[in-house]
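Hi R.,

As promised, here are both runs. First protein below:
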Amino acid sequence: MRKKINPESIFPHVGVIAITGCDGSGKSTLATSLVSYLSEQHPVELLYLGQSSGRIGAWVSALPVIGVPFGRYLLAKSEHVHERPSIPPDNTTALAIFLLSCWRVYKFRRMLAKSRRGTLLVTDRYPQAEVAGFRFDGPQLAKTTGGNRWISWLRKREQGFYQWMASYPPLLLIRLAIDEETAWLRKPDHQRSALRDKIAVIPQLTFNGARILELDGRRPASEIFDESLRAVKHTLAAANT
């Protein structure tokens, strides 16, 4: 019989095993493997907690007539904020970024609800409020300065979202390290500058004091899985004693 996780025993941490790291570090592979194994013993679910700008952009681009140009416009505007944060975004860009953060909050609330019902969540990525930028799963508008009152309100509101989400640290956070060259070889469709930024910043994040397991993402996937599983089992056993 599958065993449910007692949410009261893990407060203030939520029943989440989070996996972070640069693109190409093996997050998705590890998350899928853990869910496949753990589902034999626990109610468990895989959840992607990125901001989904690429997926939403692809959906917008599929709309008839206006879809392609509007989708390209939004994605270009979002990337412009990454590269030129000192320039305030226009109202449309600010709203698009804010709505992406609202979508992440919606997914996070669903995650909390499932956790409270006893489901163990394995997440690909996890929000944080330490460093601004969607690249690092932080608030994107906080990268910018200036702007009108509307943009300032959106920026403050978005920052509050991430501070709230970060107040729920996961039970265990598995962080996969990787070097730039390997990440580029595995993800040649990604901007090299973006990979470089993630490799520099993600290892510095504390995720509000979460327990962090540091692993080398260049190791064989089987070794990463075995070490991760040992840590997960130990964490779950400690949470339920």
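And here is the second one, sequence first, then its structure tokens:
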Amino acid sequence: MAIDLGTIRADLARFHTGKLVEHGVSPRGAGWNGEAAQATRFAQLAQLLPNDRDGGFSLSDLGCGYGALLDYLRPRFGAFDYAGYDVSDAMIDAANARHAGDADARFVLSSELAPADYAIASGIFSLRVGRNDAEWMDYLESVLDMLDRNSRHGFAFNSLTKYSDADRMREELFYADPCVLFDLCKRRYSRNVALLHDYELYDFTILVRKSS
């Protein structure tokens, strides 16, 4: 199925710029419910990164918003090079203002990543911006292919889960089948894939680690 990536990205940019204008630089301004859930998601994604905490790696953050993931990672890891990417120019402006003193961080208005050791995408698959399930899965797979191409050692992403309580699911959101995405990642990207679905939120995280 042919998908119009440019239109999807424009729709996402409008939505997230609107959220930032409405709620300011905050988890709600980035489409999250609150700080606690945001930190829980970041903790799952961070399991992809080297656990020696010595830094020395490069990281791309797709859908970086105002740079909240960088705020989470800096105290927990050593020095590392960070590049955040977003399709909303308002988000990039906010991120640059918030992290102006971080010499090892940069923020780019783009949906395409430059190569890095690791890539992370948090929360970018939740809002389907009017697309049906088939269209959104095509979009999701195209993004995963791009994350794979531009990460040397691995990538991680999260998604709302189809195992969410039915009475809490919303029509405008996309709920993925974690088993389908786990299988896709195992078959297409790496033998070393972890599915994390045990952290009391209505979503899951997948870590794809590449062999040296």
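A quick note on the second one: The helical segments are 5-23, 35-45, 68-73, 89-98, 133-149, 178-188. Let me know what you think.

Best,
J.
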